[in-house]
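During the second year of the project, the team shifted from modelling isolated chains to modelling whole assemblies. The rationale, set out in the original proposal, was that interfaces cannot be judged from single-chain predictions alone. As a representative example for this report, we include one of the complexes processed in the last quarter. Its constituent sequences, exactly as entered into the pipeline, are reproduced here:
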Amino acid sequence: MPSAMVTANMATNEPEVRSNLQTEIDNSPVFYDDNPPQLRLVAVNDQIRRLQTILRDKNSTRSEFVFSADRLIRIVIEESLNLLPYSSKIVQTSCGHPYEGIKFDKGNCGVSIIRSGEAMEQGLRDCCRSIRLGKILIQTDDETNQAKVFYAKLPKDIHRRNVLLMYPILSSGNTAIKAIEILEDHNVPQSSIILLTLFTTPEGLNSVITNHPKVRILSTEVYPVAPVHFGQKYFGTD
Amino acid sequence: MNCMDKGPSNHHKERRLSSRSNSGESDDIIETARIPTSTGRRKRNTSVSEPISVIQTTKRAIYTAGRPPWYNEQGEQKEAFIIGLSGGSASGKTTVAEKIIQALDFPWVVLLSMDSFYKVLTPEQHEIAEQNEYDFDHIDAFDFDLCCETLGNLKQGKKVEIPMYDFTTHARKKNTKTLYGANVVIFEGIMSFVKPELREILDMKVFVDADSDERLARRLRRDITQRGRNLQGVLHQYHKFVKPAFEQFIEPTIQYADIVVPRGGSNEVAIDLIAQHVHTQLEIRNLNFRSQLANAHIGQPLPSTLHVLDNTPQVQGIHTILRDQSTSRDDFVFYSKRLMRLLFEFALSFLPHSDHKVETPQDKVYDGRKFSGTGLCGMSILRAGETMEPALFSVTKDIRLGKILIQTNLETNEPELHYIRVPRKIHEDHVILMDATVATGAAAMMAIRVLLDHDVKEENILLVSLLMAETGVHSVAYAFPRVQIITTAVDKQLDSNYHIIPGLGNFGDRYFGTE
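Output from the structure prediction step:
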């Protein structure tokens, strides 16, 4: 399912987006014919479906789970890097011929939401060896059910950077919304934020888009049931 | 050169397949067969000899003279040339065979003895054989069906398993010798010409004729001095089995021979003539392979089996770095690995998948997919293809991996096969064939041909490469239309040295730092 690259026109047709989401919810994987422009789905093929299946299967071993999660994370990371700005560049090949290529601009960083977001850090490092990484710890208060920030350490000049915000499972969306708020507190414009997820629920997607309409969201699947066991199983604390 | 017996004998002597296979490990699948050329430096007491063009590593041999293409530009087999050698026991067949091999001065020659195809004996027959009364010189002592099948497959260029006959148990050993990759096969045995279906397979039939007194004298000398048998026993055996067999079965087949060689191995004129004829035949079959590839298919639309990775900004960015001649090796290695990983994730999506429902921890059934093939193997074309192995491992965990070394002969510009090692039972599997770059497609085609010769299904082969030239794509797709071709970019041209333009230089040299 290819999706067009999201560049402009992000906040306009929000009402359509919401109605769209509500009508599409059923028990099978949901692929929107008409995605909200903020959402970019990774082009799904059989291999990606296979990885998703292993991550969903409760009988998967932890080793299979981690291996498949790392593969899927890498795919999402690679896809997210395509959303970053670049400029054209011509180089000479070893055979002495010119090659018209492109060069990615500097000025990006990653921010992971502790703890499951940290599972995606290595994937990012494997692609961008020296990228700066920030961390945010958000916990849900058991009494008020509100997401509360406990810790945030971010690169100093983060307001000038594009931010890859990493959070594998977007369920209610509360944690991600809170994290985006922190970034905004650090003067990061919404349009510089890309939220990287593996799985997202229509509800969480809807919630993030409603609260922060200019944030771009990347995922491999929109499906009503979130694999909320992800962090437990990945880190082996289940 | 002494003449060790190749004919049957009731003595339990050690026999071995006379193929020059370099396999030290019998459980290993593949060995290429080869014989030394015009060195004369050969030990008769082993089945493995040391040709000068072989570099011995700790465990196995690497050939510096490779096997040129044995198929045409359509990927079709050129058949191996099979020389049949017949003649009475102790007539000098082995000597003639060795002289022919020396005179051929040609790599990838296999010597195959009919001794490998003795029938498995029943317990009763085994008893008789123990008492030296079983007739090994009879037509019924050989398994002609298996012999025809094996030789036929060898002629088709297929990988074959040669049985190893155990003369102490009169049964076949559990392990077999794997033979693959002969351009010329010399098949020798006393009954070589007896069956019409076997004669059919032979391209050239040579009968080694020696005077019967001479043969008896040789046999006596050999059996008495070298095997410690007494005169009585040898004569008894000769009169009871060897002589009648010669008269009844062997001698009449002289009429089928193309050439009769009197005086055996000392007849140099005859051996020269045979070698000349084989050379002529091989030249007719040989093709100037690579230039034919490079010039074919110009201007044709790209085939439907070609799948190019989406040209996303990241892919373009990585290509820019890889192609840039000023890129450091550190960056070159790093970014090529990234691209390989993307490529393999893409490639794996072309494997067959089926629906697969799973239970989730959230107590819902999830409609997923799973791999529905039998198995998956990797096969890298050395040297550059090897660089792709880590990336393959990082997406497939415990994949089985084969290797194949193909080098371009700098004089002829032709690809030559030097070494192969193929995972067991590969024929059921899907195979990911890896090479970093594909220019003319000559090496890739050779590798595909090798896989087909190992009974891998054409539609189960995925040729995966970082960069391909259009002509290479065409050549491979034309010869093997069911092979899936998967790459990250296709460049338009090749220069006169068959380098891809604009290309990225010699991938192996830049990756390994040997430029």
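The two ends of chain B are 47 Å apart (CA to CA). Residues 104 and 275 of chain B are 5 Å apart (CA to CA).
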